[in-house]
Amino acid sequence: MYRPYEFLLYPTKEQEQKLLVIREKCRLIYNECITTQREIWEKEKKVLKKFDLMKSARQKKTKPYMDISRTLISDMALRVDGGYQKFLSKKGGKPHYKKKGRQNSFTFIDAGRNDGIAMVFQYENGKCKSLKNTKNLSSVVGRKLLRISGVGEIKIKLSQDMEGDLKTITIKYKNKKWYAIFTRANVEPDILEKTGKEIGGDYGVSKLLTLSDGKVYENDRPLHKATFKLKNAQRDLSRKKKGSKRREKAKLILSKQHEKVARIRKDQHNKIANDLVKNYDFIGLEDLSVKKMLENDAPKSLHKSISDCGWRSLENTIVNKAQETGKTIVKANPAHTSQDCFKCGNRVKKELSERIHNCKVCGYIEDRDINAAKNILKKAKKKYEEDTIKEQEKSLVAGAQPTSRFRKKKPITVKPSLTEM
After folding, report:
1. In angstroms, how far is the first alpha carbon of the chain from the final one?
2. CB–CB of 226/265 below 8 Å?
3. 257/368 Cα distance (integer angstroms)
4. Is 0.85 topped by the overall pTM?
5. 187: CB partners within 8 A, 6+ apart
6. What digits encode the pLDDT tens for the residues 107-123?
7. What is the rounded CA–CA span in Å between residue 163 and residue 399?
8. DSSP readout, 234-267?
9. pLDDT digits (tens, 9 = 90+) for 10-56
10. 166: part of which helix (H) or strand (E)?
11. Cα–Cα distance between 53 and 143 in angstroms, integer?
12. Can you list the positions of beta strands (E) in 275-415?
């Protein structure tokens, strides 16, 4: 299992200038790779493969802005290749050139080989030594440094311990701050104790998540609360002259405000996910298509409220937490979960404004969202049982077939020669 760890960097002014130079060089390499792919696409209607593109980018290293680490050149080539793979599979458009200042991150893809390109060090008593064991970073005495090729040793705030094997290190620049993201592999899951409880969840706008046992997680609505500040910041930005320093300051203020909204939403999602995995072993959620919901003819105010909820982000957070803690999560089809009666299955059609489910067949009365959550739990359990049976059948079929080692060989037939005929 892979897990990212993000830490804050504190570079000096000289180191920050070097990081900005590397960032700009990576942008130019990225644009060169796009130029290469576009020329081949216009001539032959095909693109270079991943390794051919990496080789082509490295051969152009003779240019003055290409004198950086080979791993960064490979990283830019891999990003362009990923964009074109999405374009060929019709999941996105062609990758575009990046303007100056648009390249916000670069990755040392060979950081796990301990080749000194980007490594963590401890500085104590005038000496600098490598930290190979990163599981007890909080107990390490002395200043922690991150050594980056071409930049030097940067102060880093290691706020938590890291597990697993180091794979990559990504340097990210956002809102005048630098971050280091360590991607670790082979991280063992933190298995929690079994509770024996099952739960279903129904997404909502006013109530972010309603559980089948009646528990409700209210929506903090961070975007709605920050609308006034965002409008003022956007208005100030639009009044500033393009290319001026005041416009850059106004842009930074607006960006920080959006970042604050995103962090409030992310914090709430993490709290909900942690609460679910601690109290329940089986979690059933509805498999919503948020993109289609935003494409319908609903009013724009509802679109804004749906975007403010961040349902997809919440779902991904719960799935990741469940995988890390060894809990089971199943996504069920949400069709008619709000209309069908949980007791008898009768379909009771109701408008969106009707918040109470009242079945006239069996007399079952329940909150609309709780009834939907119970139906989602029922569908999720049924889907889990069907998937389990299918996996067992596949394993039986695979076990019944003889392997290549014990497979019977066909008899060899020797053709008669011309003299024997």
Report:
1. 65
2. no
3. 35
4. no
5. 1, 2, 3, 163, 164
6. 988 776 654 455 565 55
7. 36
8. HHHHHHSPTT-HHHHHHHHHHHHHHHHHHHHHHH
9. 999 999 999 999 999 999 889 989 998 998 888 888 888 888 888 88
10. strand 165-174
11. 40
12. 282-286, 328-332, 356-358, 365-367
How would DSSP label each residue in 10-22?
E--HHHHHHHHHH
The tokens of 9 are what?
Answer: 């960097």
Distance, in Å, from the CA atom of 150 to the CA atom of 23, rounded to the nearest integer, reads 12
Which residue do the tokens 């909502």 mark? 204
| C-alpha count within 13 angstroms, C-beta hemisphere, residue 197 | 13
Q: What are phi and psi of 382, to 5 degrees?
A: -65, -45
List the single range of 48-62, 157-171, 178-192, 354-368 with lowest mean pLDDT.
48-62
Copy the structure tokens of residue 397. Answer: 């079929």
pLDDT at 408: 47
CA–CA separation, 68 and 19 (whole Å)? 11
By three-state DSSP, how is residue 54 classified? helix
CA distance 263 to 257: 10
Residue recorded with tokens 């593109």 = 53
What is the H or E stretch that residue 290 is in?
helix 290-295
Query: And the tokens for 360?
Result: 């006239």
Could you tell me which residues come within 8 angstroms of residue 205 by beta carbon, excluding any fewer than 6 positions away?
Answer: 219, 302, 305, 306, 309
- Burial class from Cβ neighbours inside 10 Å (0-12, 13-18, 19+) for residue 247 reads middle
The C-alpha atoms of residue 252 and residue 387 are separated, in whole angstroms, by 49
**Rounded to whole angstroms, how far apart are CA atoms 328 and 280?**
9
Could you give the dihedral angle defined by the CA atoms of residues 399, 402, 404 and 407, in that order, rounded to the nearest 10 degrees? 180
**In a 3-state reduction of DSSP, which class is residue 334?**
coil
Within 8 A by CB and 6+ apart from 104, the residues are: 23, 172, 173, 174
Helices 311-325, 300-309: axis angle to 10 degrees equals: 20
Render pLDDT for 241-300 as a digit per residue (tens, 0 to 9).
Answer: 998 999 999 999 999 999 999 999 999 999 999 999 999 999 999 988 887 777 765 667
DSSP lists the bridge partners of residue 123 as 128, 143
Which residue(s) pair with 362 in the sheet? none
* Angle at CA of residue 72, ends 70 and 78, nearest 5°: 105
